[in-house]
Amino acid sequence: MAQQAQLGLQDAASPIMEELIHFHDHTLTILFLISTLILYLIVVMVTTKFTNKHILDSQEVEIIWTVMPAIILIMIALPSLRILYLTDEINSPHLTIKAIGHQWYWTYEYTDYNQLEFDSYMTPTNELQPGGIRLLDVDHRVVIPMESPIRMLITSEDVIHSWTIPALGTKVDAVPGRLNQSTFITTRPGLLFGQCSEICGANHSFMPTTLEAVPLSTFENWTTKLVIS
């Protein structure tokens, strides 16, 4: 989860988020170098008292500042396209979960299990248990097995919502009448928090998403108890 006064991104909980963090660092390094070079040129041009006709009108300079930006854009575009492909890749998911957005809560259906469906509401502040997180904890968490490919099918029954888990690098719009899809793999156990990222009405900020990644044996015990009950 995000921390107070945090400057960087959240710790990655999936391979895709690790790739996104690496891409962020890669792009930021390029931007820093470009900004430093431009600042240096501006300072030199403003402070100098000399002019050079070979710089003001030079075919070599024109070629350099045309070719260099193209190379830089390619250096940014290729990693970006690779990550975009990886986010759409689906390799035989082990579990499919359908998330349905409402004003203002989520409904989850485990489509591989019969009768496994529940609503997930934000836990009110006055009902939080010790250790609970205000505005992020819910009464029914989405439990998923770690190190297993998960497919999320996301839609809405009223207005546009957005199902988002920053630590997984996942953000998918929930659009009425449309079924969007996302896949992810969690690499470690723990709680993963997110919030609706599309303004959807008065209680938009009270519509969190909470995932609990657990070992496969724990997940199987959890599903067995819910189906029996």
Automatic annotation (TrEMBL):
GO CC entries: mitochondrial inner membrane
One Pfam family here: COX2
Domain Cytochrome oxidase subunit II copper A binding: start-end pairs: 92-225
InterPro entries associated with the record: CcO_II, CcO_II-like_C, CcO_II_C, Copper_CuA, Cupredoxin, Cyt_c_oxidase_su2, Cyt_c_oxidase_su2_TM_dom, Cyt_c_oxidase_su2_TM_sf
UniProt cofactor note: Binds a copper A center.
A Gene Ontology BP annotation from the UniProt entry: ATP synthesis coupled electron transport
Annotated localization: Mitochondrion inner membrane
Similarity comment: Belongs to the cytochrome c oxidase subunit 2 family.
NCBIfam families assigned to the protein according to its UniProt record, in alphabetical order: CoxB
Name assigned to this protein: Cytochrome c oxidase subunit 2
Gene assigned in the entry: COX2
